[in-house]
Amino acid sequence: MVSLFLKCLLGALAVLLIAILSKSKSFFIAGLVPLFPTFALIAHYIIGTERTMSDLRVTALFSLYSLVPYAAYLVAVYYFSYRFSLFWTLGLATLVWVGFAAGLLLGWSRLYTGIA
After folding, report:
1. What percent helix, strand, coil does the chain show, rounded to 5?
2. Are 14 and 34 spatial neighbours (Cβ–Cβ below 8 Å)?
3. Could you tell me which of 51, 54, 69, 71 has the C-alpha nearest to residue 108?
């Protein structure tokens, strides 16, 4: 239970830091905070303690590929922000992320199943 509380606390601290930075003159740094590997550290620790090091390597490799949907999301936010309201920009960019993530999962399951 303490472990779960600490994980929630990390997430809350990240959100708080984003909110504080977004109000500062260096607001753009708020975009860096979600890239701190808070949740990756948690995931990698759990996988590293409950599975093999080979499984940890596969997870790290998949995580590298997961940067593609995130990059697509950011490009979509940038592009759509010139054409749509905030609501539509974020909604459409999220759909772009979902599409790229689905493509990644489909491609990964077909090409890289059983990587060690």
Report:
1. 80, 0, 20
2. yes
3. 69
H/E run at residue 69: helix 67-80
Write the pLDDT tens digit of every residue in 14-72: 889 999 999 999 898 888 888 888 788 888 999 999 999 999 999 999 999 999 999 99
- Best CA proximity match to 93, nearest among 66, 74, 112, 114: 74
Helix (H) or strand (E) run with residue 40 in it:
helix 38-50
Query: Cα dihedral angle (37, 41, 43, 44), rounded to 10 degrees?
Result: 120
- Beta carbons within 10 angstroms of residue 89's beta carbon: 18
